[in-house]
Structures are given as C-alpha cells and as structure tokens.
Model the fold of this input.
Amino acid sequence: MIKADKLCRKYGDVFAVQDLDFEVKRGEVMGLLGPNGAGKSTTMKMLTCFLPPSSGDASIDGFSLSESLQVRRRVGYLPEHAPSYHELDVQAYLQFTGKMHGIPKATLADKIGEMSRACGLEQVMYRRIEELSKGYRQRVGLAASMLHDPACLILDEPTTGLDPNQIVEIRKLIRHLGEQKTVLLSSHILPEVQAVCDRLMIIDKGQLQAMGTTDELAKQAQGGARLTVILRNHVSQTLDALKSQFADIEVGECNDIDEQSSKCAIYHPDAGFGLAEEVFKAAVANDAILLEMRSEHASLEDVFRNLTGVKS
Amino acid sequence: MSAVKALCQKEWRISLDTPQGYVVSIAFLLASGFFFGGNLFLNGQADMRHWFAVLPLLFIFFIPAMSMRLLADELRDGTYELLATMPTRTIDIVLGKYLSLLGHITLLLGLTLIYPLTLSLLGDIDMGMTMASYVAAWCLAACFAAICLYASALTSQAMIAYIVGLMLLLFVFLISQVAPTLPVAIQNVVVLLGPINHFQSMNRGVVSLDDMMLFVGVTTVFLTLTWFELERRRWR
Done:
C-alpha cells in the first residue's frame, strides 16, 4: 500500500531523511518511531505530497508521489498538533474539508454524520473549534482526515499533548480504524506504538535503523539468548560443566537466595542455540534441581535506546 | 473549481463571523463616509470627484488589512499543510483566496453606492461618469488585492503581511505622485505601468482597453508571484 524507495529529503546540505526504504501492507498499522528531529514528520510530509523528495520516490496505492493529485485523493493526513480553522464550528469545518475533497453534496451530510459518530463528535458539532479541548480538536482532525474515505491514513503524533484518558480513547479509535485502513502513525511514545501498531520502524538521523514487530525488534536488539535460572544443590558444578562444554556460554552475576540455591543470569550469543535445553540437561547431569528458568527479552525501550544511541 | 468555491465560502464565513472581518469593513465604511460627507458640504456640488480622488488612499490602508491574514494565518497555524495535502492545485488555493478578498472589497464598494444614490436626490449627478469611476475603482482594488495577497504569502505573521502590503501599495501610489519630477524615460514607464495613473485616466470617464489590460496584467503578475511563493516554500 505504501512503498518508499530510497526516499531522501535535504534541507540545505543536511539530510533530514536519507535512503529510506520500507513497505506498509494493506490493512496494517505501522508505527514510525524515532527521537525528536529523526525525520518522522519530514517522511510523512513527503508521503502526503506536501514536501517533494530531494531524490528517491514512494508510491501509495500504486501511484508515485509525482502523481500528486492521485496520491492526495487516497491519503488522509493529520499533521502534528492537528491544525484546523479555529474560527469555524465543527460542522462548517467538516463541510469545508468535504468540499475540498470533492465529496458530492448529496453524500456529504451522511459522510459527516458517519465520521462524527465514529470520532464521538456528535455533542460538539455546532461548537467553535477554538472552544474545544485538545482531545476533541484531535478528533476533529481525525474525522476531517477520514471524511473522503481514504485507503491510507497518515497520522503525525496523534496523541501529543493529550491527557491519559484522551490518549486511551484516541488509541482505541486508531486501532478501530486500522481494521479497515492502512495506517502509518509516528510517535516517540513507546507504549503507544506497542499498544496500537502491528509493526514498527525506528528511524534516527533520517535513516532506517530497524523494522519489524515489537518481538522481532526486541530479539534483534537482544542479539542472543538470555536466561535467568534458579538452581538448588551443585550450582557451581552445573555452571562449570556448562561453561566447559560450550565455550560461548557466559554466566553473569549469581546471587545466593539461601545456602543451597542461587539465581544466575546465563547468556549465549546465538538466539537459536537452544540454551534452555542445555541448561536443563546440565542441571540433570550434575544432580542440581532447576527451580525456575525464565527467558529474558529486551524491552522496546532497550531497542529504542540501542538503535537511536541514547544512553540512560 | 469546487475547491475555489469551497475556499471562498470558508473565507467569507470567517470574515463575516469574526470581529477581525467586520471591524475592518466598518472602519472602511466610516472612513469613506467621512471623506464623502466632508467634501460634499465643503464644495456644495453634486459630484464624487473628490471622493474618488481619496479612494486610492483608503484602499492603500484598508486592503492590506483585509488581506493580511488570508495566507499568513494559514502558514502560521499549519493549516496550509492541510490545504496543500488536499487534492487541490496551488493555483486553486490562490484563486479561492483572491476571489474571496475581491468579493469582500466588491461588497464594501457596493455599499458605497448609497452615496451617488443620495446625491441623485440632492442634485444633478453625472451617473455615467460616476459608474465609470466605480469601474475604475473596482479595477484598482482588484489590482491592489493581488499585490496584498502576495504580501500575505511572504510571511507567517499577519502584521508583517500588513506592513509589506502597505509599503508595496504606498510605493505604487507615491511613484505616480513624484513621476513629474523624474527623468522623462522613467516618467514614461510610470505612466505606462502605474495603476494609479491608469485609475486617474479611467476616472475622467473614459474606460479604455489599455487601462483594463494594465489592471488585468498587474493582477495576473501578482497572483502568479503568489503561486510561485507558495510553491517555493515546499522546496526550501
């Protein structure tokens, strides 16, 4: 549905986005994650034909960015901070947006009714946008971006500045929309993309750092298999046997729980090695009792920090 | 054209629904009424020559005020990003904005038609010449509107757009005032290209093709510059 091919954008001599390649499949919710200034908004501005790329191209629903009018017909866009005409009431604003998208007069009222229901705007249709809370303004922006029934929605930080209740509501709404449309949303709030997106890509300094599901990225960041085990009896023999049998295995910090039991971290650089199996076998062979064994995963936060070079 | 119409309607709604729109309109009507009434009783003649002589100055101060927020506010509030990502061409945005401004000016000029109607009750007014002067004033206003829309596209600050518009119009006005003191070659250029000179020639009751072409030409040049400025912003 959305396909970027070596997409670049320069501001002066500085690359804001450089050689960006990615694909978002039809019906998928893709998160675009990155620190401030990573190039998320610039990428979205290019995909919505607001900014022309310096080089490279992208296509939306089969149309290249050079076929700008066709692309804009197929995209619903909510820019950062959800700008709108504050002097207008919600009804007038949605009417204006519908007319600009060329929605026929006969169906416009129905469309507005449908979108206002979907976004929970029925109570505020005749209130001026400047009188609305930030959450409602965001919903107005979402309703306006979907009025022409676009196949693809591009949302730039849709929950910025909202309170926790509003964030939950907007997330629910996006999740619901994602069932029918292709959604690309940007954010620097990690739990948000985890909660809403099927897949995500992390960009930093304009370049793609990683792409995949949250689990895939966590595995990728972890780099190998990491276990936390609690052993009773013959702990040191078991660990020594493991280390002598497999040179790559590293045993991290061990803490004594009581006189006979210890909690240890065990690591192997190859995630597909079957570390859990070998630990179990070694415990049995050395007459140790395995009380607990837990696989440790890197969190999305760890992935983000690793990839964007931010040290905690 | 539906986008042009939708934009026009939206601008009208904002102009008529918000104080910023009607305060400027009321101020224009008060100022024009002041110059009409003042001169009328001073001269004791049923003609509007003095009013039409002052009208360009009123335009110079009021048209930038009507146009200043048209594009500057869109650029400041980020709504231009919305407009530019809708399936409309940049030229439609320029035309929609321009026609809404021209409509606003036409409405105000239309409201001043009460002056010649009042005069016709008081004395013998040359209606043909007055209407020719109205056409000249409308053409001048249309040309000034294009210049001021361009000023509004240059900045995201409405106040700066006002000052730039005012300065551009003052330049157009003053150059025609000082033209007689300039070298002949420059004088000829000013007479040929100065909207004020053409307004004055139409104001004498003769509507010529040259004058009309000049107004259409200047308007087209500044609407094109506005289009160019909006397109240029995307490439920065």
In short: The mean pLDDT of chain B is 89.
